[in-house]
Amino acid sequence: MRNYTSDAAFPAGFRVPELPEVEAVAREVRAALRRSTIVDVRVHRWSVVTGASRQVDRLLLGARVLDLVRHGKQLALVGADGSVLVVQLGMSGSFGVVPASAPLEPHTHIAWTLDRSRELRFVDPRRFGGVTWLRDRTALTTRWSRLGPDALALPSGWFTPITTSRRAIKAALLDQRTVAGVGNIYADEALSLVNIAPQRPCSRLNEHHFGALGRALGTIMRSALASGGSTIRTYRRMGGGAGAFQASLRVYGRAGQPCVTCSRPLESGLVAGRTTVWCTACQS
DNA sequence: CGGTACGCCTGAAGGC
DNA sequence: TGCCTTCAGGCGTACC
């Protein structure tokens, strides 16, 4: 199972599962669950199950997962009984299929026993993530209709709702109602790529800015997804602080270090309540 | 409307 | 070295 946190090579807080990581997890789990039967489920910590439906049989999904879909950073298992289980990885969650004999790592909150001696496990040390049971796909549609378009498939007019907003562009990007799937890392990276200051109000950006920003988001997400798996494995093998992923970051985690474009030291501060790094010279 | 703060939680990292 | 403090972050929510 891919694990972003409890592995020593992936210290918690270094890399959060953002959209590309969640999509990678979705692909793995989708493939692993094909034609699988859910034999049993063990819930070690009910508090990660949100909503009013803390019943074991509901988590069995009718003994079979028919589909696994994703929107932004949310995953959803669609069960044979028509119910849906939304899975959010939060800050430190991981989700994957492992041999049933694999040692139960700490903070394993839910384990589904599958056929062929396998288990699907939800692990989340910090418990910012969780699962939510929904009655049917309509409830999922309703839930996801509150989110903006997925950052991996942005429509051309994605920015229309925020063009007159006076909030900082970074605040709007982090708001999942604007675009689903953008987190702190990629917000900073995208803004850096298109030379827009994170605190600049949306209303002071034009269509060219928004267009470039949307393309930058797509490019970053796609390249992270394409190289993600191998980057993660490479980084793991290296087991230290200087992985390929880190090397690909322009601003995130690089406060005080030279801007890759102009070499001036990068500024850091709080924007939208989040640690933000940007170049005061390049970005306006 | 938007901003600010808080709570949730663990473990890494820094200070002494 | 070991203990203690600080910080990080997604996301919901309360409050100005």
Secondary structure elements and pairings:
Layout: H1 19-33, E1 38-43, E2 49-50, E3 65-71, E4 74-79, E5 84-88, E6 94-99, E7 108-114, E8 118-123, E9 130-134, H2 137-145, H3 169-174, H4 184-193, H5 207-238, H6 244-247, E10 267-271, E11 274-278
Parallel strand pairs: 2-9
Antiparallel strand pairs: 1-7, 3-4, 4-5, 5-9, 6-8, 7-8, 10-11
Helix pairs in contact: 1-5, 4-5
The chain binds a DNA duplex (16 and 16 nucleotides) through residues 5-6, 11-14, 16, 73, 88-92, 107, 124-129, 165-167, 171, 174, 176, 183-184, 272-275.
Plain-language structure description:
The chain is of the alpha+beta class. It folds into two domains: 7-144, MutM-like, N-terminal (N-terminal domain of MutM-like DNA repair proteins); 151-278, Helicase, Ruva Protein, domain 3, CATH 1.10.8.50. 27% of the residues lie in helices and 21% in strands. It contains six helices and eleven strands. The chain has helices at residues 19-33, 137-145, 169-174, 184-193, 207-238, 244-247, and strands at residues 38-43, 49-50, 65-71, 74-79, 84-88, 94-99, 108-114, 118-123, 130-134, 267-271, 274-278. A five-stranded mixed beta sheet has the order 2-9-5-4-3. It has a four-stranded antiparallel beta sheet with strand order 1-7-8-6, with helices on one face. Strands 10-11 form a two-stranded antiparallel sheet. Helix 1 crosses helix 5 and helix 4 crosses helix 5. The longest helix has 32 residues, at 207-238. It starts with 18 loop residues before the first helix and ends in a 6-residue tail after the last strand. The model is unreliable at 1-14 and 229-243 (pLDDT under 50).
